[in-house]
Amino acid sequence: MRSPLLALAAALTVAVPGAGAALRAEPASPAERAETERRQRQRELDAIQADLAKSQAERSRIEAEVTALRNDRAALVAASLDAVRRVRAGEERMTVLEDNLKGLDARQLTLRQSLHERRELIAEVLASLQRMGRRPPPAMLVGPDDVLMSVRTAMLLGTLVPEMREAVTVLARDLEELSGLRRRIASEQEQLRREAAHLRDERVRLDALAEARRTEVSSGEQSLEAQKTRAAALARQAADLEHLIGRMETEISAAQRAADAARTTTVARGAAPLDRRQQMAALQNAARINPAMPFEQARGSLSLPVLGVRLREFGDPDGLGGSERGLSIATRTGAAVTAPADGWVVYSGPFRTYGQLLILNAGGGYHLVLAGMDRITVDLGQFVLAGEPVGVMGHTPPPASAVTTGATQPVLYVEFRKDGSSIDPAPWWTTRTPGPQANERVRG
Questions:
Q1: What is the CATH number of domain 222-428?
Q2: Angle, to 10 degrees, between the axis of helix 73-117 and the axis of helix 30-69?
């Protein structure tokens, strides 16, 4: 049977989630475990109740804000653009925090495994203190801070034999690092919890503003529901995207008017290029009802419609013997999706194995396709601005993306089309657009 001091030393290596049975501590008594669990549940309940009270107050504020904006289209659009920027910033902060925690957890596990292998050395340090009449800490309370204090005491009192001192110095350094890691992890976890609550509130605001925009559009289109039903039927009949776009823009009145508006704007504007100052001024106008610039002139200025990892680029092998016709981006669960450019909605709804599909007519013969969303927040015929929220990602990829990319997280598929053919979207993306590598992981 193990000595009590060796058991005490082993208790230092209380398990980290996923570390395995070899790292588990000596069990505390049932009463002690029950009390610890009760306190933990109470702390979690208090935190949830505090978040809930804050969220309810925030939702009341959001409802009042949206009500005040309903009759001011430009203000409503500007608020939507601001809301999606806030959501994106929150998603980025969450990813950074998750990456930090991943690194801290990995280092903590490495240290615990190393300390577990040195449990006999720890037991010897505790034994040296016991020989001097000092009582070691109870096994149920032992942790890195407790053992570090014992090690420092042993070093200070000179109770260690010379050949142990170097090893114990290294042990003290590792214990100190482990104690610091535990504090940093607790701090990062609390910050992550607060950030998640903040992101949840920002998404509620974004959803409310998007719904207000849809209401604004649908209120002027009495037959929109009937048109959406007809559009769904056309989508079931369409063999491919080209067929779907063609039928939508000739048979559905809202999509037909959107296509007509795109053609009229293109003809009226002509090919006169805008200089940088004119482009910026046009983009700042949240009240615009036509594209700020011809799509052809937007090269090098568009932002990706979602934050994430670029899995497949245009022209890459598609895994089925062909080539990719668009860009596939792995995203967070619930990530906000925005319009890459100004354009009119000519289709929104499910399509074959693409999941929820959105098609924008950007004018000049260009169509922008976004597929794989869980929910679309714009309607047929609606004119949307670059950066305006248009949808929300779900929890899993649509069947088409799961097969071709092998991804398990949500995947947004982006395709640019010109006169019925897919084209490489790369020249349109801004150089400021982040482009993580495909081997990076997206958390949800």
A1: 2.70.70.10
A2: 160
